[in-house]
Amino acid sequence: MNLARADGAAIALRGNKRGVPACISCHGAHGEGMPANGYPRLAGLNAGYLETQLEAFANGQRVNAMMAPVAQTLNADERAAVAKYYAALNNPPDPKKMLAPTDSAGARLATQGRWSQNLPACTQCHGAMGVGVGASFPALAGQSSLYIENQLRAWQQATRAPGPLGLMKVIASKLSAADIQELAAYFSALPANNSTRKGSP
Amino acid sequence: MNLRSSVILVTAILIAAATGIVVVAQDHTHEKSASSTQAQNNIPSSSVTAGFTSQTLFQPPAERNMPDDEFGKTIKHGQEIFENTKNIAPQYVGNASNLRCSSCHLDAGRLANSAPLWAAYVSYPSYRSKNKHVNTYAERLQGCFKYSMNGKAPPLGDPVLVALESYSYWLASGAPIDPKIPGRGYPPVSHPLAGDYRRGQQVYEQHCALCHGADGAGQTDARNQANFPALWGAKSFNWGAGMSSIKNAAGFIKANMPLGLGGSLSDQEAWDVATFMDSHERPQDPRFNGSIAQTRAQHHDSADELYGVVVNGHLLGQGIVAAKPDSGGEKQ
Lengths: 201, 332
What we know:
The complex is a heterodimer of chains A (about 200) and B (about 325).
Chain A: H1 8-14, H2 24-27, H3 47-59, H4 67-73, H5 76-88, H6 105-112, H7 122-126, H8 145-156, H9 167-173, H10 177-188
Chain B: H1 3-32, H2 38-41, E1 45-49, E2 53-57, H3 70-83, H4 85-88, H5 101-104, H6 106-109, H7 117-121, E3 126-128, E4 133-135, H8 137-148, H9 159-171, H10 197-207, H11 209-212, E5 219-220, E6 226-228, H12 246-256, H13 267-277, H14 292-299, E7 310-311, E8 314-315
Antiparallel strand pairs in B: 1-2, 3-4, 5-6, 7-8
Helix pairs in contact in B: 3-9, 8-9, 10-13, 12-13
């Protein structure tokens, strides 16, 4: 354990002295992201998940021109600290977010899957209402729809590593362009609310 | 990634691609029949299930065709109980249990080879060696609560049973009365070698622990609601459940696990990992008569059951004192 522990808040708000920019410049003052640009919400996401993603950007398992140099310039301690910082942030309430419709094509696919194609429901792994399960199944509720779309396409195009058990690559391969849009619209409309305590495995 | 998991992944993708072709055709059929009658939706169509077996399978009616009347309300209620058992019928589910009906009957009881409700419904009344008399469908449902949910059997006529039976009946619309209907139960799995705990443990760690946890207790979601079911320990099914038979568990696992990658494990891997799962302690069989040896002789006298067997120095069948609801990580 490094005695001089990295300060996650300082990195998020000001970056580090080796050229990492402040996270807030793209991910928002409260970690809410910039949905229209596809910059994801970070607030309230699982710390282990965020740390793993920073490692994946650093080692190229996730191909991203913006995040690769950032992740590479953070050391392991800093990556862990900034992941913890964002995991502990509460999502700011968004009064405009109503419950997503339950009868849309996206809602059906998200909550029932399409088992004729051996495609499970998203919520079977990502939790009811997409609230996330542990370090491997991130919250989808309230995430930028463009970001969700980009990730599903990244799995289809192999610019994001298949992840645990290769599940997401297989799943993305069964989704049409319309499916992806519908799913992203459904989850982005759900309230990102992590006011209750985090689940433990 | 090692070579072996690469092979599995590639196989899964190939299966996915092949399945996709079939499904495109199916979806077109569904589109055409979207406004047509329920009966047309019930025409059996060729289908690939779990990516490894091809047969003609019954298709239950689409959810949108659920009747829009008083009966339909009860059918819908049955579906809700099925998917959210603990919240809607808590009085019949064990305090610690984090299972729901759809944990073992995927796709809300629709999926062939995942013990679909439509196949079960057309298979009763039936004589069961488990309790040595002719069981009605309602009594069969009672067994799920008593053993798999580690809870209490709802009394005959209870609204919970009526709703579940109504949902099953509706899913079976158009199916023949036939206990041999293709897709019933879990398909049999061969095992050239006897089940092996160590091999099973390796399979578990590689393919199962991601969701069910290294301790087999399952996982809750970020709002602390049950998500992945417990496979052993206080939150799991008890020793009287069908899943405590290696044969049943291996059949389910082979056809359906990991979620979305059904058919990716070999038969032997499925058998070994089922052996590993059922080598752990779980809540006592409600038929326990005070003696593990006698309870085994009476109810578990099979090479596929480990109740009353010593594994790793532990005599299985001692049961677990139920923990508080949703408490985490208990060990036997």
